[in-house]
């Protein structure tokens, strides 16, 4: 629980976040109103759930007030027949990429069906006794964050079995940023399924509308949606998550750095997995002598059991105090760190070579293009790299407008 206590302290410390930059300053009336998640607006959907057998795709971020939504809704008389768990499990304590088994929730007695174990999509049998599905998971707005894949699988299962999906929408903490190369078709994978940029700039509710509208569900199926919108929210509203969305995104700093640092998972550089401050540092043993700052990844159950460079000192960048208001001002992911560390690395042929790395990702699949790696290796200026993302990025932004629920 110490991570959550630390996160709560940071939440209090971040109370002045809306004043980060004049470009995102809200009207005074809006500043007095914090975003209210869809889940917290129970009056808008409790009557609709009456008499229905409900399935819920939820995890530890699925809260109503300070209680898990499953516990709250069950206490309010909602008949929850199944809970479906995504990556990291229903309680959010499984490591990244770890398989999660089916179980029975000890507190409620509700069966838990894992969608990150034997199968990723609810089966016909799973859906047989469900009248309505609820999707309530906190996303962080990145193409390679797997919850949007889980959303698609659930939508497909609902469409195929004639079930309605209710989405209790939540703010996107990176919703102000739409940036990065568009995913190339031949690089589709479990960490990128659609032609979207690294940061897609949408909430789960908006992304669900895009999946329907663009015909991206299997067989171009259409899922019947009921979206409970976030109140007092725009994409420019800074939002500090009250609960860590996954074990290795345990601070507000890590969530804002994640879009820029996750591509390093396709390199020989550690992003701090195996420390208590993942996705806020970058380093590798071979950078000793180039940087003074160092950290040592170790095995941490529930976070990173076998991190890259385990038990070795890594030298590089400490970004824990990096001023993340830069992201709000530029609305761009940071490429400078990737370029800098590649140029500093003494054995450049090993930098992107996955045979030298234990990482989960593949750089081209994380980037969504083979060009970015080639451009960095060739010394292409950042401005030219960004120019190469067009017209794909601008076309995506135009398409995205059709599905926005918030300004």
Automatic annotation (TrEMBL):
Domain Peptidoglycan beta-N-acetylmuramidase NamZ N-terminal: 54-252
Record's signal peptide: 1-19
Xref: InterPro entries: NamZ, NamZ_C, NamZ_N
Pfam family, one: NamZ_C
A single GO molecular function term of this UniProt record: peptidoglycan beta-N-acetylmuramidase activity
Keyword terms, alphabetized: Signal
Keyword Membrane part of the UniProt annotation: no
Top-level lineage group: Bacteria
Keyword Signal part of the UniProt annotation: yes
Domain Peptidoglycan beta-N-acetylmuramidase NamZ C-terminal, residue spans: 256-406
Annotated PANTHER family: HYPOTHETICAL 460 KDA PROTEIN IN FEUA-SIGW INTERGENIC REGION [PRECURSOR], PEPTIDOGLYCAN BETA-N-ACETYLMURAMIDASE NAMZ
Protein name as annotated: DUF1343 domain-containing protein
